[in-house]
Amino acid sequence: MANLNVEIPSLKLNDGTSIPLDDIAGTAWYKSSADGGIDRKLVEATKTAIRLGYYHLDGAEVYNTEPEIGLAIKESNVPREKLFVTTKVITNIKDIPNAIDTSLKKLQLDYVDLSVASLLSYHERRPK
User: Fold this and answer.
1) CB atoms within 10 A of CB 116
2) Could you say which of 30, 54, 63, 111 is catalytic?
3) Fewest C-beta atoms under 10 Å: which of 20, 65, 70, 74?
């Protein structure tokens, strides 16, 4: 496996947290259903990205890829604290704490670094 030795730029927040300005495993891997089992191609692609230094992993409950992202993290053997994991709450926007807990279980993680409440789908569905 090539080692690109490329430094990924990051954005430093006021509290000292740095967010890598790269991400992998976002909507390009959207699965139409969570019932299809584990997609090994996604797990392997995410592990490859991690090995290449892409440490910002971007998921969402609606992508149905959180189990694959979690498995890739586990199999990569990269310390969790080196990764920046984002998830988005979309379909369960009315119960964000439960949605985050569900995502954590699927990801097999104790925490995510960023959780985004995406109101786009709510606005699209809200009664007029």
Assistant:
1) 13
2) 63
3) 74
